[in-house]
Amino acid sequence: MIGAPRAICAIAASMLALGVATGCGGDSEPDPSDQIEDVARDASRSLDRFADALRDARVSDKASLVRLRASAGRVEDDLRDARSDLGDIEDESEGSDRRKARDLEDALADIEELAGDVQASPPSRSDIEVAAERAEQSVSDSAIALPRIDADRLLASMEKRRAKTTPGGVSAPIGQGSSTTQSSRPVAYRDYTGPAFQAKVPTGAGWAAPSQSEPTPGQLFRTNVRGPNGLFVAIDFTPLETAKFGGRYSTRTEVGQTAFGSATRYEFQGGRLPECQSSPCIDYIINGNGASGGSGFAVVAGGGAGAAEIAQTVANSVTPIGDYAE
């Protein structure tokens, strides 16, 4: 009787050829990798139209802006549906397919944000610049090919228009307020020991003594140092997990770090910190290996001119101590 099932399925195969449904062998499960490619292919059709409209848009050409806003509205809807599909695929997948679905979903979310920014009335050049750079970086990092997103011509036309409408024809750099016109003074540093680390922190005229807090008791320890003209620097320590950057950024760079070997430098504007709403802030994410592999540090500075140099000096000096030393 061993050969009977084969004979039955052979008959079933003949029936299938005639269009008769059978239960032999069952239905094959869809391949997640193929599903992800299908979603990307459908999304790319809408992205192609959006990318074309973005490249053609000029603030001096109202018709091109109308086309851009219309295309952005359509792509928002399409990407929202695509991300919903990817979420379903992610729930049903594992391993590399799950990571691929998540990465593509994140990339489409960045492009969707840009589509929302270009529809604003009036549009914000700084918002579009940040969103466009992030979207372009996401497309570049995506394991699945997506249409290139290029807002350079639109941004150039916006800058040209702003220069014409600014008194004297000179516009201030994006993200810089009145604090950048103040002369920057050399910053002195002193050694400081905080929770699980040693570092150099600013000191001298205008700088307050470091203060410590626990925004999340037992999980997040913060050392905050306030300076003149709104400058600040904070060192966060997370003993139970590695440090991560949350939110959206304009640049991301891998840099060296004295004690850990490397760190990731983010430049951003916005987020929860009031000082970062009006001017760019710098955030260094520092994670180690070995004993400190399950913990991390972050150094964020902002508030005006000189913040980048302060962040770099403090971040480079962070050294773990005690149980968290390498």
List the helices and strands and how they pair.
Layout: H1 4-17, H2 32-56, H3 62-92, H4 95-118, H5 125-141, H6 152-165, E1 188-194, E2 197-203, E3 211-216, E4 220-226, E5 232-238, E6 251-257, E7 261-268, H7 275-278, E8 281-287, E9 296-302, H8 307-317, E10 319-320
Antiparallel strand pairs: 1-2, 2-10, 3-4, 4-5, 5-9, 6-7, 7-8, 8-9
Helix pairs in contact: 2-3, 2-4, 3-4, 4-5
Please summarize what this structure is.
This protein is an alpha+beta fold. The protein has 8 helices and 10 strands. The chain has 2 domains: 136 residues; 138 residues, Jelly Rolls.
What features would you describe in this structure?
By secondary structure, this protein is of the alpha+beta class. The protein has two domains: 32-167; 187-324, Jelly Rolls. The chain has eight helices and ten strands. A hairpin with a 3-residue loop joins strand 3 and strand 4. It is flat and about 55 Å long. The model is unreliable at 1-26 and 166-184 (pLDDT under 50).
- The name of the CATH architecture of the largest domain is Sandwich
The geometry reads as: flat
Alpha plus pi helix count: 8
Which CATH C-level class of the largest domain is it?
Answer: Mainly Beta
